[in-house]
């Protein structure tokens, strides 16, 4: 886990999703965390303490009167030793208890006694989730700075479908990672382009490139984690956008330009990650072009340079470009940085970066080069966002 969290209390309450808490415990341990299981009595109807003990290597606590801890006060001793309390699954009853500040078993008492963040992953029947009483409790929890992770929507153990499914264990871990990211862009508005563009040749064919959109989507996610408001202008990709981003789907470079230009006025920072086609087809056919024996010639005209158009504005946002190069990477990237008047450009190896999950990035700015050692794209995006925040704050704050 990329946080300073070392010791975590995993609270398990009574719900069928408790079986997934076993996998969650395993993933947390795998990440090097010290995991202390605390179960409610109802959780014991779904999973056994021995299961969590075997996975975490620590005895599980359930009883408020358990005197095994150092001072014989389990609720204080356990919560003081923790950097984070995570309750997953959190039943409707447990949310109600938290909302009221009740302390009638070990888990609710240590939640009340804690001096660290509390994150809860609700899991319940959709009708219970939608019930006005639960709505009220959820609002109260938000007011009390208790963070809700999920729930998500889908098929439920009871056979119904709707909101109330607990987030999957991997998603819970991602959400914890996100929660602990520094809020370096709080209050700022970011505009981000991502993915390839698609230039139509006819009704069914077009010119595009191998950009997957993964880097742009990762940058959008990292910006959201850093507290920014994000508008993601995306060419065609098969990716799921971060739920909190405002998504604008476009196809061609001209559409992407129009979408960007309509939003630059209100943007503080513009990050152009999209791999925009350099040319478009001059007269695309409305119908599918029929095959015949003749040579087919396509006339291509240059596309507008979206990023350069933005930097030419009177009061441009803080602009960041990407340069995917297959040779002389840093030299070409620096030339682009100068030509497009960018405070920062991100150079990467076109062959290695496109479509892959891991990249090395080199950031070029007025202070020179900064190497971001090879890592997955989300990690790189977080590092990049950190660097952008530093430059932005130095310039405007
Ligand atoms: O294609 P090129 O290497 O010039 O791309 C460098 C940067 O410019 C990238 O950030 C890319 O998103 C942006 N760009 C753009 N519009 C184009 C071409 C590139 O915004 N038509």
Short description:
It is built from 14 helices and 19 strands.
Strand content: 15-25%
Poorly predicted parts: none
The N- to C-terminal Cα distance equals 31 Å
CATH topology of the largest domain: Rossmann fold
- CATH top level of the largest domain? Alpha Beta
Please state the average pLDDT score.
Answer: 95
Q: Which CATH-level-2 architecture of the largest domain?
A: 3-Layer(aba) Sandwich
Specify the overall morphology. elongated
State the strand order across the main sheet: 12-11-8-13-16-17-18-19
Helix and strand composition category = alpha/beta
Q: Please, how many helices?
A: 14
Offer a few descriptive terms:
single chain, alpha/beta, Rossmann fold, binds cytidine-5'-monophosphate
What does this structure look like?
34% of the residues lie in helices and 24% in strands. With 397 residues, it is α/β, with parallel strands linked by helices. The protein has two domains: 7-179, 3-Layer(aba) Sandwich (Rossmann fold); 189-396, 3-Layer(aba) Sandwich (Rossmann fold). An eight-stranded mixed β-sheet has the order 12-11-8-13-16-17-18-19, sandwiched between helices. Strands 2-1-3-4-5 form a five-stranded parallel β-sheet, sandwiched between helices. It has a two-stranded antiparallel ribbon with strand order 6-7. A hairpin with a 2-residue loop joins β18 (358-365) and β19. α1 (18-30) packs parallel to α2 and α9 (214-225) packs across α14 (377-396). The longest helix has 20 residues, at 377-396. It is elongated, with a radius of gyration of 25 Å. Bound molecules: cytidine-5'-monophosphate. Cytidine-5'-monophosphate binds at residues 193, 253, 272-274, 276, 303, 305-307, 321-323, 336.
């Amino acid at each position: 886990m990329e946080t300073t969290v070392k010791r975590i209390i995993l609270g398990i309450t009574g719900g069928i999703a408790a079986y997934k808490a076993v996998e969650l415990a395993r993933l947390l341990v795998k990440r090097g965390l010290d995991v202390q299981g605390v179960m409610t009595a109802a959780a014991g109807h779904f999973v056994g303490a021995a299961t969590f003990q075997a996975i975490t290597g620590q005895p599980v606590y359930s009883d408020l009167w358990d005197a095994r801890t150092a001072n014989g006060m389990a609720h204080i001793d356990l919560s003081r030793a923790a950097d984070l309390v995570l309750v997953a699954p959190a039943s409707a009853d447990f949310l109600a208890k938290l909302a009221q500040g009740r302390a009638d078993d070990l888990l609710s008492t240590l939640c009340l006694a804690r001096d660290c963040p509390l994150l809860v992953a609700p899991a319940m029947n959709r009708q219970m989730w939608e019930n006005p009483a639960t709505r009220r409790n959820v609002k109260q929890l938000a007011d009390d700075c208790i963070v809700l992770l999920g729930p998500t929507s889908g098929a439920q153990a009871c056979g119904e479908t709707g909101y109330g499914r607990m987030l999957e264990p991997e998603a819970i871990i991602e959400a914890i990672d996100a929660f602990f990211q520094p809020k370096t862009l709080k209050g700022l508005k970011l505009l981000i382009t991502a993915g390839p563009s698609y230039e139509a040749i006819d009704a069914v064919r077009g010119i595009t490139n191998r950009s997957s959109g993964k880097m742009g989507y990762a940058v959008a996610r990292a910006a959201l984690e850093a507290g920014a408001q994000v508008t993601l202008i995306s060419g065609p990709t098969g990716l799921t956008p971060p739920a909190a981003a405002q998504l604008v789907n476009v196809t061609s470079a001209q559409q992407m330009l129009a979408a960007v230009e309509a939003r630059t006025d209100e943007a503080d920072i513009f990050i152009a990650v999209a791999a925009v086609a350099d040319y478009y087809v001059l007269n695309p056919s409305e119908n599918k072009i029929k095959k015949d024996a003749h040579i087919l010639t396509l006339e291509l005209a240059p596309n507008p340079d979206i990023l350069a158009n933005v930097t030419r504005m009177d009061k441009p946002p803080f602009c960041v470009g990407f340069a995917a190069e297959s040779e002389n990477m840093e030299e070409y990237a620096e030339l682009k940085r100068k030509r497009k008047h960018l405070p920062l450009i991100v150079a990467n190896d076109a062959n290695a970066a496109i479509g892959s999950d891991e990249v090395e990035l080199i950031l070029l700015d007025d202070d020179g080069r900064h190497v971001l050692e090879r890592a997955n794209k989300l990690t790189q995006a977080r590092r990049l966002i950190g660097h952008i925040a530093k430059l932005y704050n130095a310039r405007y704050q």
